[in-house]
Amino acid sequence: MTAMVKAEAVHKSFGLVEVLKGIDLEVKTGEVFCLIGPSGSGKSTFLRCINHLEKVNAGRLYVDGELVGYREKGDKLYELKDSEVALQRRDIGMVFQRFNLFPHMTAVENVMEAPVQVKGTSRAQARERARELLEKVGLADKAGSYPAQLSGGQQQRVAIARALAMDPKLMLFDEPTSALDPELVGDVLDVMRDLAESGMTMVVVTHEMGFAREVGDSLVFMDGGVVVESGDPREVLTNPQHERTQAFLSKVL
After folding, report:
1. Residue numbers of the domain that contains 82
2. Any alpha helices (H) in the chain, and if so which ranges?
3. What is the pTM of this model?
4. What residues are paired with 227 via a beta bridge?
5. Residue 63 has pLDDT above 70, yes or no
6. Which of 65, 92, 121, 204 is most open to solvent, judged by the fewest CB atoms within 10 Å of its CB?
7. Both ends of the chain: CA-CA distance in Å?
8. Is 148 left (phi over 0), alpha (psi -120 to 50) or beta?
9. Domain membership flag for residue 98
């Protein structure tokens, strides 16, 4: 199986604080890859490096065999132009903790916006596809609603539909359920479960250990900017080998 995401010795600092201290990992095409760990462990920063929302300070990150954010010449890296980075991002969908929907647009308009603006899809075609995607996430009846009229869980499902509208080959989820009321979490996880079953490659930063155990193909526990432990989610969550993993899981399971 080919790697959809490959990280080689990825480092990232904010000022003097080193947040990622040499991350090496591989996400296979078609797998659900879960990142867990305490707050401040670097997992969300790593996720944001995958689509160059954060720039790595050292190391290399590849998506589908292509170096992210840089061009390599000899042994030197040159940063890509914004337009070139935007082209790479077209293939990567991202769902944030806070849904980031446009408040002045209805659900269907939010979903159709990127294909129209970025891909030049006709409005009629984009609207039809947006309606299909809203149906897929269980919100066909909310197409004409504005974000303020939707619950947090519904907004997050619109955000997932919006990311899917660009037909990405990779989906990134940054704690997609942590801002939601507990009773709304299930609907969002159901949509993610369906997406996983359809074969979408997904990298998920999550606190939902049940989801990781049930849906995840691989799991990485990060702490202090390093990968502490990785493996099959059921194995790591049931029988963690490292004491830092054991200490973390004893608090959350």
Report:
1. 1-90+169-248
2. 43-50, 82-89, 107-114, 123-136, 152-164, 182-197, 209-215, 233-238, 243-252
3. 0.95
4. 222
5. yes
6. 65
7. 32
8. alpha
9. no
